[in-house]
Write the structure tokens for this entry.
Amino acid sequence: MGFEQGLFRFPEGVDSSQYIFATYYLETPLEPHQAAEILASEQSTGTWMRIKYETEERREKYGAKVVGVHPLPYDAGQCHLPTKVALNGKINAAVVRIGFPTINFSPNLTNLLSTVVGEAYELESFTALKLLDIELPPSFTQHFNGPKFGIDGLRHILDIRDRPLIGAIIKPCVGLSPEETAELAYQGAKGGLDFIKDDELLADAAYNPVKERVKVITAALKRADEEKGEKTIYAFNITDRPSRLRELHDIVVENGGGCIMVNVAALGYESLSELSAFAEVPIFAHRVFASAYLRSPYLGMSLEVLNKLWRLGGADMILIGAIGGKVYGSDAEVVASARACNQGFPHLKRSLPASSGGQWAGKLAGNVAAFGHVDFLHLSGGGVFAHPMGAEAGARSLRQAWDAYRQDIPLEEYAREHPELRAALEHFGG
Amino acid sequence: MGFEQGLFRFPEGVDSSQYIFATYYLETPLEPHQAAEILASEQSTGTWMRIKYETEERREKYGAKVVGVHPLPYDAGQCHLPTKVALNGKINAAVVRIGFPTINFSPNLTNLLSTVVGEAYELESFTALKLLDIELPPSFTQHFNGPKFGIDGLRHILDIRDRPLIGAIIKPCVGLSPEETAELAYQGAKGGLDFIKDDELLADAAYNPVKERVKVITAALKRADEEKGEKTIYAFNITDRPSRLRELHDIVVENGGGCIMVNVAALGYESLSELSAFAEVPIFAHRVFASAYLRSPYLGMSLEVLNKLWRLGGADMILIGAIGGKVYGSDAEVVASARACNQGFPHLKRSLPASSGGQWAGKLAGNVAAFGHVDFLHLSGGGVFAHPMGAEAGARSLRQAWDAYRQDIPLEEYAREHPELRAALEHFGG
């Protein structure tokens, strides 16, 4: 397959308003420009042979275009993905940019994924292929409404202006009855949580159905709200078959629930868009399962891409990993991906990134420092519900950690007169 | 976190009718049994701290169980996934088996994925985690109907008993009008194709909408069927937002279409189940996007798992890669994954595996030899539509290749009196 000069051009050479641009890292035994051409061809007109009706004019209009090839140094000679191709000791690395004509597919996330995270991942001539970034023109994004509430909407609902949202995930996540879940939620809310959510593993289970859960938790939170004079919202996990989303959404809303959650990657990205089109409450987007294609630097896509697409799809909150937590990503990566929840798309509201995984009171200041702002949700699990003095104290320890931070008082000092924080430091800080 | 003896038991120790068993390959700086416990805990009761209500009884009932730990030799000392954990030069490898109580989730593929391909992929203490296999008890599989047609149904529709199904994908896949697509389909059908399908990149596009395509292609195939005295079915790609699947399915069926296709991984697995519940024609399941979590040996899931789940979900045909083709998997892997389209689940019909990627007449015999039987779909693209004598001749070359194989005549010899096969050998065999 020859390298076709006519298809190789720079961004200035295409009408960028009619293209989606995807940036990939790739490794290949081929020359980088040749690999880029194969990628563009495979994901548009593509087969391994030139065929009837595939005129130059057609290729110009419908073919994906290579708009950038940046060879990178690559010394390791290491093959990062299985291949049948003889490598002969030579592997090249490059960052390439491909433009996909928007005319090729209808504007939904399913077809977008088919195109940009497509079959090229299977080609034996790539020994690494990672989608790093995606740029979407207004002609595509205009079909998406993005978050209905977003950061500002959530702040408005909760009446919180100047601090991170403090939240927790109910643990243990399996085996609790609705009443026990409500009791834990009440304690956490009473202690000062702004946000509580189901775990991603508990959905509409027979032993704890959504309907029962909403009823008792809504009543419990109402009681806590009145007692503390603040508001707490609870995200009910309605992940299920796509056609049940509306039914479960309606059950939540009709019974007074204030928020829903879905495992977007397991469900399908476009189900998020469809849900957000009718959702009356904010949506928390969980990324469970996505890690299977996010974590490798050599395959799949970056979390930045996922965050952009889920914001388009209407996620009000997006789980992005943890600052200083037990998940794999470095703080720098987490911060970069948090930015992708908000950058670009000026017609869309901003999604709130959620930092979760091994979080507790002692981690809050580090989160603020890493993000450089307070537009995030700090989400604990055991950090609240495994607090030695109970869940209410666990929640309180987090609010105390914020108060200490705001007043610029070292945590240890503040803890002297705040027993919940002190217990957290002793219990989790060891 | 200590190693809790009580949770560690062998398969004989749990009621296997109430558990889903998942088998993983993992790499970890921890001891394998400890890593297995973390995996089980994270994907069930899970957090990093023991908490209220998490009684022994609850853990017994709802907790995932480690039912096997098989340490493996691991000498490379290499870290295959990013982590923040200090490895100190030591990484252990193991195959572990975890049992998940079916009581924890409602029987659908979305929630199954959330559980078995879950957050454990993110944990910094795993430097590899690959789901190799999954065993599903009747208490779970009884909720799934599997393929409506399957291999036997497809053979009945096409009246083919004793040979592989011969198919082709229309190429180029973007830019053709419905009429041009129909003309190519007619030629291929006339030449003897049993099956033709849209490419995964062409769905309900504005320049070639499904409705127009079905009308003209159905008419073209009817003409071809009458002329050749055989039947050809065409799989229309109806991949779109989940809520449009029924509309597009109905458009296909009402206009005489005989088959549909969906990009299951991009759409969401459970959308396949929902589609199959009402589908009146066979479903071709395309795996585009899935390669992002299939290809790495260190992350994600195996193709066997995907094939099992898609069979449950109702896929009549499943794209599994290629024997001797341009995609990454070895022939042995492709054959193993083909088996997963049919093994187990005696109450379900069998899915037909499709071998696709760089296929043409010269590859057919190798496919039969590798599979060891003829229960597969041999799927070309350029091998038909880039044939130098045209698509009809391309199709004919494949039927000739089968005739030669059946009569045990070497291809080159048979080609002497069969110009279409001869041209294929000259053009593609170089």
The longest strand of chain B covers residues 19-28.
